[in-house]
Amino acid sequence: MSEPLNASEPDGSPAPAAEARSAGKHAAETASAGSREPTVVVDDVHLTYRIVGRGRRGGAPAAVRRVLLREQAPGQRSVHAVRGVSFTAYRGEAIGLIGPNGSGKSTLLRAVAGLMAPSSGAVWTRGQAALLGVSAAMMGGMSGEQNIVLGCLAIGMTPTEIANEYDSICEFAGIGEFVHLPMNTYSSGMGARLRFAIAASRAPDILLIDEALATGDARFRRRSEKRIRELRDEAGTVFLVSHGLGIVRDTCTRAIWLENGRIVMDGDANDVVDAYEDKHDEGAHRPPRPTHRSGARARVYAEPSSF
Amino acid sequence: MTEPTSAPPAPGLQRAGARLPIDEYSRRLWERRWFVAAYSTASNSVGYQGSFLGQAWQLLTPLLNIAVYYLIFGMLLHTNRGVPNFIAFLSVGVFVFSFCTDSLTAGARSITGNIGLVRALQFPRAVLPVSTTLVALLRLLYSLIVLIPIVLITGEPLTWRWLELVPALVLQSMFCLGIAFVVARIGAQVPDTTQALPFVARVWTYTAGVMYSVQTFAAGHGQWVSVLLTVNPGHVYLAIARNALLADNPCGIGTWLLAIAWSVGTLAVSYLYFWRGEEAYGNV
């Protein structure tokens, strides 16, 4: 039913689940024993979702025949987005999830947040995990101040809490008088700043960030990175999905490299990003930089060349 | 989806996205009441932003419907036989029944139309059908601005019985919310629901007695036709609303009891049904 999207699956590779399960153990062994508290345990998670209504052929008669004969519609495909991922995250860690488009990063993040149910395996969390993002609750036709209220209510704040936070959100977003205008008059940078300011106004136990830092000018990016560090201290654990490898190096302590829904490498952020760049940026011009390859904490789960 | 089969790997860990027990779920839903109110009013006003006449369409649409129905059913087909004040009868029918059809069609889209919200934020998903039903109720309340003058101008007396409209609308809201819960879950699982529902809504409109008197019509048919037509919840809520506003449309205590039974029964069953699907709404 689920056709594998990666054709070049390494033959005879050890069961990825079993191998990945040792990830948790490995991380636990290297941890300074006892002092580290697990906050997220991802246990052999698979996530499959259906895509309906794409590429149906044969028109109405064929569709009726499919219904009558209970055939699987050819347009229905299952996408096996996450294929047996296991790891354990600990309090105080900031984990970057890196990988090419479609490697399952965002889907994995949604499973950790409890927004999508795994088709097998389980995600365990200590406290509430929350995705940093309120854009879905905001409405372009409404003013900035109305959207602040709406966004804050959407992430679960009470009216009293909003009244207390309102000024600091406005100040952090730094959009001045624009707060009284409809949001669809904002530049994309201003919109992004306001969304980040609202979303970052509350520290959940486990903070999940999906490409939130990609927008905004340099000054705002610095401020938002500072806020992320504060949130990390308050939150305990932060996950960051980003294509900006520099951000992962700067803000993360650990990185997980995903490809085709599987973990390729899990370890120290600099080591994993180095390995990822070696694989994906070959031939790209980049300034030479000092390598801090320790190799001690990083562990390669599969040869990157096999993907 | 996956049921919690194994114990947590370490104490203090909970399964992410696990469905809460019904009492805790209801408590969280109640905590989100401010969000429900803000989101409903915002999406109601945003819905008309693209048009020149804006919110005036909230009143124009049912007015045009009444005009069309009056021409076709009153003047051409003469379904107004046995109805003393047909314009007022028709107006109450159109406005009150559109609450039912609105909650039906909007409820089916409440999850799929807000999938961005469902995939981004954690909250009891029941917030969404509650919100679409509230939008439909708001429209009905706005439409009273037009409905009440129509009823008075056509010669209906203003009496204390009008206060019965309040319990009538409360019961109808409970029933409509129940309908929204059911179609929200079905609509999330079967994408074709939104295409099929307008037909269901139309059949329901024609059988509920919006533009003709069910009593007069049933008199010429067999016993079971009469029972089917009068037990129809759509007709029940129309009957108690007309009983409140119109002088010549009395309904008995039996209709009120039927209205209560439909409201409480539908809401209780459908709330459980919706709650049981809670974990999978993000996967659609």
3D structure, described in words:
The complex is a heterodimer of chains A (307) and B (284). Chain A has 307 residues and is α/β, with parallel strands linked by helices. Chain A is 36% helix and 22% strand. Chain A has 9 helices and 10 strands. In chain A, strands 5-6-7-3-8-9-10 form a 7-stranded mixed beta sheet, sandwiched between helices. In chain A, strands 2-1-4 form a 3-stranded antiparallel beta sheet. Chain A starts with 15 loop residues before the first helix and ends in a 7-residue tail after the last strand. Chain B has 284 residues and is mainly alpha-helical. Helices cover 67% and strands 1% of the residues of chain B. Chain B has helices spanning 22-31, 33-46, 57-76, 86-108, 115-118, 127-153, 165-189, 193-207, 214-219, 223-231, 233-245, 253-276; one strand at residues 14-15. In chain B, α3 crosses α4 (86-108), α4 runs parallel beside α7 (165-189) and α4 crosses α11 (233-245). The longest helix of chain B has 27 residues, at 127-153. The two termini of chain B are 12 Å apart. At the A-B interface, β1, α3, β4, β5 and α4 of A face β1, α2 and α5 of B. β4 of chain A pairs antiparallel with β1 of chain B.
Number of strand segments of chain B: 1
Low-confidence stretches of chain A: 1-33, 287-297, 302-307
Number of strands of chain A: 10
For the residues shown, what is the average pLDDT of chain B?
A: 88
Structural class of chain B: mainly alpha
Over all CA atoms, what is the radius of gyration of chain A? 22 Å
List keywords for this structure.
heterodimer, A: 307 residues, alpha/beta, seven-stranded mixed beta sheet, three-stranded antiparallel beta sheet, 9 helices, 10 strands, disordered N terminus, B: 284 residues, mainly alpha, 12 helices
Short description:
The complex is a heterodimer of chains A (307) and B (284). With 307 residues, chain A is an alpha/beta fold.
Write the layout of secondary structure elements.
The complex is a heterodimer of chains A (307) and B (284).
Chain A: H1 16-30, E1 38-51, H2 59-69, E2 77-90, E3 94-98, H3 105-112, E4 120-125, E5 129-132, H4 144-154, H5 159-173, H6 188-199, E6 206-210, H7 218-235, E7 237-241, H8 245-251, E8 254-259, E9 262-268, H9 269-280, E10 299-300
Parallel strand pairs in A: 3-7, 3-8, 5-6, 6-7
Antiparallel strand pairs in A: 1-2, 1-4, 8-9, 9-10
Helix pairs in contact in A: 4-5, 4-6, 5-6
Chain B: E1 14-15, H1 22-31, H2 33-46, H3 57-76, H4 86-108, H5 115-118, H6 127-153, H7 165-189, H8 193-207, H9 214-219, H10 223-231, H11 233-245, H12 253-276
Helix pairs in contact in B: 2-6, 3-4, 3-6, 4-6, 4-7, 4-8, 4-11, 6-7, 7-11, 7-12, 11-12
